[in-house]
Amino acid sequence: MSADRRFIAEAVRLGEAARGRSAPNPNVGCVIVSADGGVVGRGATAAGGRPHAEAAALEQAGRKATGATVYVTLEPCTHQSSRGPACTDLLLKAKPARVVVGMKDPDPRTSGKGIMRLRDAGIDVKVGVGRRAAEESLSGWLTRLKLGRPRITLKLALSIDGKIALPSGESKWITGEDARAHVHLERAHSDMILVGRGTYQADAPRLDVRLPGLEDWSPRRALLTHGEAVDGWEILQSPQDVYRLHDVNDLLVEGGSATATAFLAADLVDRILIYRAPIIVGEGKSSFGYVGLDAIADAHGLWAPSDGRRLGVDRLEVYERVR
C-alpha cells in the first residue's frame, strides 16, 4: 500500500469513528504527515459538526503543518459559516505542501472550489485516493444531501427460517452476545434509532449503547406511531416523515415487523442488516408483511449483498438497495 493510500485509510477510520455524532455535518477524518513521514496531526469532525476535521488536525499540528501533507476524506470546505472558518482558509494559512483528498465535495457551496483555491496557491492537490472507502464512510451525509433524508438501515435478528419471534411474541434473545455487541456498535454510529409503537409497548426498549467507553454515544430515539407523544422520544407519524429529519445522517430502524414492512413498502430502506441465528423457530412471527410485490420477478435486482461475516455462533448478512 502506498503512503497516500495508507494515510487516507487512517483518515477514513477517524471519520468513521465520528459517524453518528457529526450531523448535520459530514463525518470527515484528517491526518497531517510531515515531510519525514511522521504523523503530526489527527482530527475528525466533532460532535454537532464543529470544529471540522481539518481544523482539529491543524491545531494539533501547529507549525509542523507547513510543508506537510494533509490527508482528508472530503474536499475542504470553502463556504463561510458563522460557526467557524472555512477549512480551505485554514489550510492556505498553514501552507502545507500537498493535500490528498478522498472525494470531491458534492455540496455546491464548495464543490471544486476548495480544490481550485488550494491549487491556485501553489499547493499540490491529489483527488480520489481511497474514494470508495470515503464514500462509504460518508454515505449517511451523502444520502441526505442527494435524497433529502437520512441513510436508513433496517436491522433484523432472525432465525434460520426467517422468524423474529415465537407466536407468543417472545424474541429475547434470538442472537448471541457477539451479534448483540455488533448491534450496539451500529447504534453508536447512528444519529437516531426508530422502533414502532408495538415494539415500544411490548419490550420497553432502551435503545442505548452499552459498550464499554461508548455509553455516551447513545443516539436519539424515535417512535413510529399515530399515538400520543412519549417523553424522551421523537415522533414520526409515517415513514415519509424521515424527510423532515434535516439533522440526521444515519437512521437505524430496529423493528418490529410492521415498522420494517412500512419502510420497505415505502422503498425507504438503503441497507439491511440481518443477524441470523442457527436456530429454527417453526411457527412464529414473520419478519415482514406485504411490501407491494405481486410477482417474484419484481423482487429480483433490488438488493445486492455487500458483506457477510461470523459473529460468534451467528452470522451477519448485509444487503444494499440497488438504486
Automatic annotation (TrEMBL):
Q: How is the cofactor bound?
A: Binds 1 zinc ion.
Determine the domain of life of the protein's source: Bacteria
Q: Where does the record place the CMP/dCMP-type deaminase domain?
A: 2-125
Instruction: Give the reaction(s) catalysed.
Output: 2,5-diamino-6-hydroxy-4-(5-phosphoribosylamino)-pyrimidine + H2O + H(+) = 5-amino-6-(5-phospho-D-ribosylamino)uracil + NH4(+); 5-amino-6-(5-phospho-D-ribitylamino)uracil + NADP(+) = 5-amino-6-(5-phospho-D-ribosylamino)uracil + NADPH + H(+)
Q: Which GO terms describe its molecular function?
A: 5-amino-6-(5-phosphoribosylamino)uracil reductase activity; diaminohydroxyphosphoribosylaminopyrimidine deaminase activity
Keyword Methyltransferase in record: no
- Pathway where it operates: Cofactor biosynthesis; riboflavin biosynthesis; 5-amino-6-(D-ribitylamino)uracil from GTP: step 3/4; Cofactor biosynthesis; riboflavin biosynthesis; 5-amino-6-(D-ribitylamino)uracil from GTP: step 2/4
Q: What does the record give as EC number?
A: 3.5.4.26, 1.1.1.193
Q: Any idea which UniProt keywords this protein has? A: Hydrolase, Metal-binding, Multifunctional enzyme, NADP, Oxidoreductase, Riboflavin biosynthesis, Zinc
Instruction: Identify its protein family.
Output: In the N-terminal section; belongs to the cytidine and deoxycytidylate deaminase family.
Q: Which NCBIfam families match?
A: eubact_ribD (TIGR00326)
Recorded hits in PANTHER family, A to Z, give: 2,5-DIAMINO-6-RIBOSYLAMINO-4(3H)-PYRIMIDINONE 5'-PHOSPHATE REDUCTASE, DIHYDROFOLATE REDUCTASE FAMILY PROTEIN (AFU_ORTHOLOGUE AFUA_8G06820)
Q: What does this protein do?
A: Converts 2,5-diamino-6-(ribosylamino)-4(3h)-pyrimidinone 5'-phosphate into 5-amino-6-(ribosylamino)-2,4(1h,3h)-pyrimidinedione 5'-phosphate.
Protein name, per record: Riboflavin biosynthesis protein RibD
Q: Which gene encodes it?
A: ribD
